[in-house]
TrEMBL record, chain A:
Protein name: Aldehyde oxidase/xanthine dehydrogenase a/b hammerhead domain-containing protein
Coiled-coil regions listed: none
Aldehyde oxidase/xanthine dehydrogenase a/b hammerhead domain segment(s): 9-117
InterPro entries per UniProt: Ald_Oxase/Xan_DH_a/b, Ald_Oxase/Xan_DH_a/b_sf, Ald_Oxase/xanthine_DH-like, AldOxase/xan_DH_MoCoBD1, AldOxase/xan_DH_MoCoBD2, AldOxase/xan_DH_Mopterin-bd_sf
Matching Pfam families: Ald_Xan_dh_C (PF01315), MoCoBD_1 (PF02738), MoCoBD_2 (PF20256)
Alphabetized SMART domains for the sequence: Ald_Xan_dh_C
Superkingdom field: Bacteria
Entry-linked SUPFAM superfamilies: CO dehydrogenase molybdoprotein N-domain-like, Molybdenum cofactor-binding domain
GO MF annotations in UniProt: iron ion binding; oxidoreductase activity
TrEMBL record, chain B:
InterPro entries cross-referenced by the UniProt entry: 2Fe-2S-bd (IPR002888), 2Fe-2S-bd_dom_sf (IPR036884), 2Fe-2S_ferredoxin-like_sf (IPR036010), 2Fe-2S_ferredoxin-type (IPR001041), 2Fe2S_fd_BS (IPR006058), Beta-grasp_dom_sf (IPR012675), Diverse_Oxidoreductases (IPR051452)
One function term, GO molecular function aspect: oxidoreductase activity
Species this protein is from: Skermanella stibiiresistens SB22
Domain 2Fe-2S ferredoxin-type per the UniProt entry, residue ranges: 1-80
Identification of the protein by name: 2Fe-2S ferredoxin-type domain-containing protein
Pfam family, one: Fer2
Classification lineage: Bacteria, Pseudomonadati, Pseudomonadota, Alphaproteobacteria, Rhodospirillales
Gene3D superfamilies hit by this protein: 3.10.20.30, [2Fe-2S]-binding domain
Length: 770, 162
């Protein structure tokens, strides 16, 4: 069975399955306290247990050249040094001959804690005199930004990061608007809940580190390990096997440096495989409160918006800064504005670190923005559809001055949702506005990364066998198959000829990681260029052999293998190559790369490569007695520019949409009394099952043909999450006249809204209010 | 059946059960028999990634003691394809055709659950499919493609495809 087939035959190997001869097994002891100083760790009893190899603690970590990691703010030690900052913070790691012994040894480690006051919520963290998570500022450069933006690391106690963007005369414009509305929206903390628990295996041999990990950013991790251990990058090799789901939860540095440190101390290969419970304690999506003040003119044209976003970053930085930047920049939605002021702060709390989750703040921003657009439309007596139509950016119109133009037809996608939903006929239904209603939303995010770059090679053997090599990891999005399609389409060879090479950082050309739906567009362009390079070499070789200009030749697959065509004549290539080279044949090695340039005139320091709109429509029915929400229809669409693999594009939309559906209806990682996670285990934490699906769940992919990638393609892997939550909230208001502004939209919250009681529940009262 | 001492049938062949009494089936399958297609996700009978068929009934191998399968017949994903030529069976073909997977971590469980369902109900309704698949989690696909795969598999099997 080939690589794809292996998934249905059970043959696929994940990092979880990685095994090496002589491998030892590790388990982590985690903090039971949300905030405490570590006064001492006594591991002597654990070490005395037969089968225990070693114990790693912060004392070992502190001896490294730089024991911290974190994106732009490096504040997270690879294992707690001196202090713990959330329940679940790793305190000690046991390496033993087997997992069972390692687990038993954890019980024998005594940690002496001085318990400190927890800082469980945004309000607690920002209160005057609040306990601080960190006493000292951290190394790391603030994210680079361009015109109109600012970017600050650790601007205030317990504030990790602030990003802001302003243009135009916001105060004047708001003062002059016909209507001004201020609304707040709260979004809950959710878990990635990928099925393959976080895992990795490290081995040190001849002074070189080798690491098999489920992380999707092999080159980023290599750079982190290099800096933290003070080793050159060519002494570190990361292997990225198939990843069992990630959604952002397996991006950026996590446990990899700790696994390396354990392998060094154990002097043996070490495997650390978390349980899914522990995976839930590793990273979450940002909860937060978003407050938007929006001015419109008498005709419902948007004038100005001031946005304040407070996002709960948890205990450590991870990728929070990027989330803040992206959330604030996108919170104005796909609309035209005269003036904008947006600010996002990441607040530190003693909770699980928050980081990337399928769209870097895109879901939070689109949710708040699209709810408010709908509310404003209803308040001023406009149909929400019409309100959006009036304000949407046109094709080619820049998202912001200095940024790139809209490369999707936003109205076309909206109309498609309306058509599928039956939106314009909704008032004919007897139940409309009487417990039954429809809502629309359009999410938007930038895609492809900021100033991103990637390299790739495409090698073609004398038999026409194609090997595509790039560092876009396989995480279920079908990266390898899409990149192989791009290569073979460019070469003019059948897809069956191509294989996607396993990723290891010794051999694979570099990219920045598998992020921001960049696989098709950025890495895809590098692959396309590499394939073009290989094709040129092949045609040049054939032209020389056939004594004709290369321009006269094309590649094709014939009955006798691959061949060059010159007019009516077909020349099989294998014999041509073999007669010249002899031996075991030859490979043509095509190289390709792409760099999106930085541009200081653009607010986020690079013109966005492509825009990812997401259109959603929902029809709901509310039981007025119980508040129970039934979703009759959920329609979600995206724009692939050009779909290189339609089935995988639709699959990406459906998967993302259902995650947002879970977040909207019931998903929430809660804290009890603000300090202890209440449901951070796979049994108590509820994710959507097939039995939870909307009655009708319809996902579609448009091809507007304006993407910058190969054949007009652009990415869409994250987009399906953006608009779902707002569409559902808007449908609830359409059905009942009541507005819910806090996710998830539970029966209790909907009932409260029906009773006119709904207000944004402040974050620190949320658990009490459950 | 091995007949001598403790044994069970594994993917149609007799196998011995040497595991200690407290061993869990998933560990026996993965470690003693190298059957890594039986995945560990939640490890607490929630996600269905470890689903195997025991005498045709789906069971969570992470929460089944090895001794419970003594004398019984266990089918894992590795035993689904044609034993002689490795050709995918109709349900596997349907999953391939409909792209009923993304990361693939849930896929073995979904395919085995589908097999049990279609043995009991060769022409299930959408609601029946949703209810049966509701025994497991897929975090990637949004289930749509999996549900299509079950419909397609049912059609292939009804057409007597082998
Ligand atoms: S691993 Fe057994 S049900 Fe999840
Ligand atoms: S395909 Fe990834 S969990 Fe189902």
């Amino acid at each position: 069975m080939d690589g794809l087939n292996d998934k249905v035959g059970g043959g696929t190997r994940y990092a979880f399955d990685a095994a090496l001869p002589g491998m030892r097994h590790a388990k982590l002891l985690r903090s039971p306290h949300p905030h405490a100083r570590i006064l001492g760790i006594d591991a002597s009893h654990a070490l005395a247990l037969p089968g225990v190899v070693c114990v790693v603690t912060g004392e070992d970590a502190a001896r490294l050249p730089d024991p911290h990691h974190g994106f732009s703010v490096r504040d997270q030690p690879l294992i707690a040094i001196g202090k713990v900052r959330y329940v679940g913070d790793p305190v000690a790691a046991v390496v033993a001959m087997d997992e069972r012994t390692a687990l038993a040894a954890l019980e024998l480690i005594a940690v002496d804690y001085e318990v400190l006051e927890p800082v469980p919520t945004l309000d607690a963290a920002l209160a005057p005199g609040a306990p601080v998570l960190f006493d000292e500022p951290h190394p790391g450069a603030p994210l680079g930004v361009g015109a109109g933006s600012w970017s600050r690391n650790e601007p205030a106690p317990n504030v990790l990061y602030e990003y802001g963007y302003a243009r135009g005369e916001i105060d004047t414009d708001l003062a002059g608007a016909a209507h001004v509305f201020t609304d707040s929206f709260a979004i809950s903390r959710i878990s990635h809940y990928y099925l393959e628990p976080y895992s990795g295996v490290a081995r040190i041999e001849d002074g070189r580190i080798e690491l098999w990990t489920c992380n999707q950013d092999p080159f980023m991790i290599r750079a982190d390990i290099s800096r933290m251990f003070g080793l050159p990058v060519n002494d570190i090799c990361l292997h990225s096997p198939m990843i069992g789901g990630g959604f952002g939860g397996k991006s950026y540095c996590k446990l990899e440096p700790l696994i390396v440190l354990m392998a060094m101390k154990a002097r043996a290969p070490v495997r650390l495989a978390l349980t899914l419970d522990e995976s839930l304690l590793t990273l979450t999506k940002h909860a937060g409160v978003l407050t938007l003040t929006t001015g419109v003119d008498a005709e419902g044209r948007l004038i100005a918006r001031r946005s304040e976003l407070k996002l709960d970053g948890g205990a450590y930085a991870d990728a929070s800064a990027m989330v803040a930047l992206k959330a604030a920049y996108r919170v104005t939605g796909p609309y035209r504005w005269k003036s904008v002021f947006s600010r996002a702060s990441i607040i530190r709390t003693t909770t699980i670190p928050a980081g990337s989750y399928r769209g870097f703040g895109g879901t939070q921003a689109s949710y708040a923005s699209e709810c408010q657009i709908d509310m404003i439309a209803r308040r001023i007596g406009l149909d929400p559809y019409e309100m959006r139509r009036r304000n949407l950016l046109d094709v080619g119109e820049p998202f912001a001055p200095g940024d790139s133009g809209m490369d999707s037809d936003l109205r076309r996608g909206l109309d498609e949702v309306c058509r599928r939903l039956g939106y314009h006929e909704r008032s004919q239904h007897p139940g409309h506005r009487n417990g039954r209603g429809m809502g629309l939303a359009i999410g938007i995010k930038d895609g492809g990364g900021t100033g991103n770059h990637a390299q790739a090679t495409v090698t073609v053997s004398h038999t026409g066998a194609v090997t595509v090599s790039a560092a876009t990891t396989e995480i279920g999005q079908g990266a390898g198959s899409t990149l192989c399609r791009i290569a073979t389409r460019t070469l003019g060879l059948p897809l069956a000829n191509a294989r996607y090479a396993p990723i290891d950082t010794d051999r694979t050309p570099l990219n920045n990681g598998t992020h921001v739906s960049c696989g098709t567009t950025v890495t895809g362009t590098a692959v396309q260029r590499a394939a073009e390079d290989a094709r040129a070499q092949i045609l040049e070789f054939a032209a020389e052999q056939l004594q004709c200009p290369a321009a006269d030749l094309t590649l094709e697959e014939s009955g006798q293998g691959w061949a060059v065509r010159r007019g009516a004549d077909l020349h099989p290539l294998a014999p041509l190559i073999m007669s010249w080279f002899g031996g075991v044949g030859y490979v043509f090695i095509g190289r390709g790369g792409i760099k999106v340039p930085y541009d200081e005139r653009s607010p986020v320091r690079a013109r966005n490569l492509f825009w990812m709109p997401s259109w959603a429509g929902a029809e709901v029915e509310i039981d007025r007695e119980t508040g129970r929400l039934r979703v009759l229809q959920l329609i979600v669409g995206g724009d692939a520019g050009h779909a290189i693999d339609m089935a995988s594009c639709v699959g990406q939309i459906a998967g993302a949409a259902l995650q947002a559906y879970g977040l909207s209806l019931f998903e929430e990682l809660r804290y009890r009394d603000g300090a202890q996670p209440e449901n951070a285990d796979p049994r108590a934490y509820r994710v959507p099952m097939a039995s939870d699906l909307p009655d009708r769940f319809d996902c579609f992919v448009e091809e507007h043909g304006m993407g910058p990638g190969p054949f007009g393609a652009k990415g869409l892997g994250e987009s399906g999450m953006l608009a779902v939550t707002a569409a559902l909230a808007n449908a609830i208001e359409d059905a009942t006249g009541a507005r819910v502004t806090t996710t998830p939209f539970t029966g209790e919250r909907i009932l409260a809204a029906l009773d006119g009681l709904d207000t944004v529940v402040p974050m620190d009262q949320r658990s009490a209010a459950e | 059946m091995t007949g001598d001492g403790r044994g069970f049938t594994l993917n149609g062949k007799p196998a011995s059960l040497r595991a200690p009494d407290n061993a869990v089936l998933v560990d026996v399958l993965r470690e003693d028999h190298g059957l890594h297609g039986c995945r560990i996700g939640c490890d607490q009978a929630v996600c269905g990634a470890c689903t195997v068929l025991v005498d045709g009934t789906p069971m969570a191998a992470c929460s089944t003691f090895a001794f419970e399968v003594e004398g019984r017949s266990v089918l894992t994903i590795e035993g689904v394809a044609n034993a002689s030529d490795g050709a995918p069976d109709p349900i596997q073909r349907a999953f391939l055709e409909e792209r009923g997977f993304q990361c693939g971590y849930c896929t073995a469980g979904m395919i085995l659950t589908t097999r049990a369902l279609l043995e009991r109900d060769p022409d299930p309704t959408e609601a029946t499919i949703r209810a049966w698949l509701g025994a497991g989690v897929c975090r990637c696909t949004g289930y749509s493609a999996i549900i299509s795969a079950v419909h397609t598999a049912a059609r292939l099997l009804r057409q007597g495809s082998v």
